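User: Please predict the structure of the protein below. I'd like the answer in structure-token form so I can feed it into my own downstream comparison script.

Assistant: Understood. Taking the following sequence of 348 residues as input:
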Amino acid sequence: MSSTGRVWRGFPTAASTTRCLSWAARCTCWEAAMLQGGLCSAVDLYSPEEDRWISLPPMPTPRAGAAVAVLGKQLLVVGGVGEDQSPLKVVEIYNTEEGRWRKRSALREALMGLSISVKDGRALAVGGMGADLLPRSILQQYDLRKDVWALLPPMPTPRYDANTHLLANKLYVTGGRHCKRPVKAFEVYDTEMRSWTTLPTMPCKRSYGGIIWDPDGRLCLLGGLRQGGGHQSSKFTKNVNIFDSNQGCWLKSDETVAMKTKRADLCAASLRGRMVVAGGLGHEPTALDTVEAFHPQKKKWESLSPMAFPRCSTSFIVTRDRLLVVGGVNQVPSSANEILYIKEEEYL
């Protein structure tokens, strides 16, 4: 695959001031990306059709690190960290038809680092860190129509900043952190049976890696900072680990292909059937501009055109078969925005 088949293009800077972006959500009702960043209340919307950012009414509560879910034509913002650096229990929702924010029923306790998914119009919020800085095992469900939070069976392993993915009636919870240290726990919640199952743990403890669920229902862990043991220091890795949800096991190392470049805190997405990684933090440490994609037929990673601006800690989202990479950090917060296009002949 030649790099000419894939093209990066810049797009306008967000309407609000430069900031590190804490979340990005695809709003299917608009086919647009919404961003909220840093410890502030600003919210911006990018319209692909108009190629411009639109400033929306600010959130009533300034916050960072909130959990976000799209419920129909409404944007749910849950918990996070407030101006006093303490977790929040505040829940707010933005109605796209009314063009305004409303406060909703608060969480049972203040939490940051929640992970959230949507199932049948309800939000499932997992884990989090409380005001005592300890992780939680809580699983709670929000019903928008009733404006009620309900407790469900807690997950076996307390943690925060976990990755969640909904596959049919199964909610997979991967990794996360416990008292600032990464955990290897991998568990799944059956929404019909209302029970948890412990799956084979992740092959290694890592943080700041990329996570992709491919179209075949496989969990792919890419790169990251691998935690050292004993007197060993943590190291950047280019390893790829894959869990096959159909077989219920991790693939052997000789069945996976490592990336070309060691990187952590990267952008990782599935774009037209291929795993794509961009930017991140490399050795020294240095922000990267390199981009690579995995070719499933050739079974190898191939270099793509680099981003114009090296950075890590980006927000990113795939919409209309385009990868939007927004903001990030390169020693200081970046306002760079870029889109990766794939030419027609590059389709799988």
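That's the full token string. The CA atoms of residues 126 and 139 lie 5 Å apart.
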